[in-house]
Amino acid sequence: MKKLVLSLLIIAGILEARISIVTGGKGGTYYPFGQQISKECGDTVGGLDVVSTSGSLDNIYRLLKEPNVKFAIAQYDALLYVLNNGSEEDKQKVGDLRVLMPLYQEGIHLIVRKDIDMSDIKNAFKNLRVSVGKKGSGTFVTAKNFAKITGIRWKKTYAQDVKTSIKQIVNGELDALFYVAGAPAKLFNVDESNDKIFNLYKDHLKIVDLASLSELKKFYSNATISLKDYKWMDQGVSTKSVRSVLITYNYKPFQPSYTKVKRLYQCLYKKLNKFQTSSDFHPKWQEVDPTDFRGINWEIHPAVQSYLRTLESNYDKKEKPSVKSNDKDKALDNFFKDM
Question: Which of 13, 127, 229, 277 is in the most buried spot, having the most CB atoms within 10 Å?
Fold first, then answer.
């Protein structure tokens, strides 16, 4: 009997130890980020499985509903979208999520067939068939925002994955696609991508410059996608971006997961220099500042706040890590409340 009880306790411990981080498609940036987080810091939380998903919305809902999912990467605008547009139950649950760490800016990739004239974006869109990403993705949320903010309407909308959309653009069945990811996204980086279809068709596509759409400035940050990001581009473009965040539940100090949150953050904080200086890691790590929560109008996890308080002596008053909001935060938050 004692052996049976001991065996059950061991099994329970193993099952409890195997927790997950939900990321995104393997051709994007979330998935390699999750792999690198797991490889470098997974041991601090007893092992961390990396799960490929449809993207931000899918990640948020999995974090809300699946017990083994303890961490998720998501776009900030997707988090606000669920808070203001989810079911009443989901709104309540998402309000109990906390930001573990701010990550990087994700650029809006608006990709069209190369022969389409986009000099007048608003008029050009009227005749376009556009893919807005799968329904579980952050791209889907951002594309909806894009249409509402700019007042742009297109001929027909498709909610589908990016690889299918690329093939259809080249075959003449689709005209444009939205894709939100940290540049360089693996799928579009010809040197790193294993997607033979995209490598074959790359000369048929272009990324649209969004500088003329001034309405977006109130809600999204300015960004660029350069030749350094994608060598197949003819020239760099101006675009907009949204912040990505690593999120988790608001675990309490008496819960085992609270300690795991703190350990994961400590590990990421201490290894940041390695992430940012080694060529083995995604270049988007160079944008990550684990103490800079500005631009994120959301509560920081208390375990992270506790750890940051121990570091305050390393910061001057102006640099002390804290949650700050600005007009862009409030504009985006209010925008979702009105949807």
Answer: 229
On whether the 106-242 domain is CATH 3.40.190.10, my answer is: yes
Which pTM value belongs to this model?
A: 0.83
∠ CA(272), CA(180), CA(148), 5° rounding? 130
Give the strand pairing for 19-22 and 129-131: unpaired
**CA 43 to each of CA 236, 260, 268, 291: distance values in angstroms, whole numbers, following the listed order:** 40, 10, 12, 23
Helix (H, G, I), strand (E, B) or coil at 74: strand
How far apart (Å, rounded) are the C-alpha atoms in residues 215 and 218?
Answer: 6
Q: What distance in Å separates the CA atoms of residue 274 and residue 305, rounded to the nearest whole number?
A: 23
Angstrom CA distances, 15 to 11, 12, 81, 195, 282, stand at: 6, 5, 32, 35, 30
The Cα 130–Cα 178 span in angstroms is: 8
Structure tokens given for 107 = 């650029």
Helix (H, G, I), strand (E, B) or coil at 76: helix
Q: pLDDT below 70 — which residues of the chain? A: 1-17, 190-201, 313-339
Q: Which fold, 2-105+243-337? A: D-Maltodextrin-Binding Protein; domain 2 (3.40.190)
CB atoms within 10 A of CB 44: 17
DSSP state of 181: E
Q: What per-residue confidence (pLDDT) applies to 337?
A: 59
Q: Give the pLDDT confidence score for residue 139 in this predicted structure.
A: 95
Q: Fill in the amino acid letter for 39.
A: K
φ, ψ for residue 192, nearest 5 deg? -105, -20
Residues 6+ apart with CB under 8 A from 327: 218
Tokens 């279809």 belong to 197
- What is the spatial distance between Cα 282 and Cα 39, in angstroms, rounded to a whole number? 13
Q: What are phi and psi of 163, to 5 degrees?
A: -65, -45
Q: Given this chain, do its domains 2-105+243-337 and 106-242 carry the same CATH topology?
A: yes
| Domain limits, the chain | 2-105+243-337, 106-242
